[in-house]
Amino acid sequence: MLANWGGYYSQHVYIQEARRKKIPIHRPDLHASGKEFVTRYPQGEAHLFMGFNQVQRLTKKTIKKIMQERPFTGFEDFVMRVNPSRVELENLIQV
User: Fold this and answer.
1) How far from 95 is each of 9, 26, 47, 50, 62, CA to CA, in Å?
2) Taking the CA atoms of the chain, what radius of gyration do you get in angstroms?
3) Which residues contact 52 (CB under 8 A, 6 or more apart)?
């Protein structure tokens, strides 16, 4: 439902339900997130990762490049291989 921007209810309602069920919710992660919200199971427990679509002004081209180029060894490696615009980089840092 979160991948569809909430469906019948707003995304906020579904996020609150995940919190109520004690499912950890993570900000967009360069190594774990997808285009949309995604559930990963590190150590067998569900974790919800926000999708890159949640980052304002992040282009489809940059999202695709992030997912193709990972894993990254560090910040400089990410910037060199993905080459995000200044606005995209600032918004990623802020989230």
Assistant:
1) 24, 10, 17, 10, 16
2) 14
3) 28, 33, 34, 35, 58, 63, 66, 67
Is 90 exceeded by the pLDDT of residue 2?
A: no
Q: Give percent above pLDDT 90 in the chain.
A: 76
Within 10 angstroms of residue 14's Cβ, the number of other Cβ atoms is 17
Q: Is 83 left (phi over 0), alpha (psi -120 to 50) or beta?
A: left
What pTM was computed for the model? 0.82
| Of 29, 68, 90, residue with least CA distance to 39 | 29
Report which of 15, 11, 14 is spatially closest to residue 26, judged by C-alpha positions. 15
Q: What is the sign of the dihedral through the CA atoms of 68, 65, 72 and 51?
A: negative
DSSP state of 36: S
> What is the sign of the dihedral through the CA atoms of 66, 68, 70 and 74?
negative
